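Lab channel / #folding
Pinned by the channel admin:
"Please post every new chain as: sequence first, then the C-alpha cells as a reply. Keep commentary short and put observations after the output so the thread stays searchable."

First post following the new format, from NK:
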Amino acid sequence: MLIVKVKEGEKIDRALKRMKRKYRNTKVLQNLRENRYYTKPSVARRQQRQKAAYIQNLRDQEEI
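Reply from TO:
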C-alpha cells in the first residue's frame, strides 16, 4: 500500500505526482500486464537473449 503524506503548504497536484511516481516505480501495472498470459520458460529466455543482443548492438553502434 502506498502512503504519500502531503506536506504543509504542498499542492495536491504535486503530491499526486509523487504518488504516481511511486506507483510506477513499484512496477505493479507492469507485472499485471506481464502475468496476464503464461509464457513458457524457453520463450522467456529467448526474449531475454534477444533484448540483451539488441541493447548490446545499440551500445556497439554508440562507440563508433
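NK: The mean pLDDT is 93.
TO: also worth noting, The chain has three helices and no strands.
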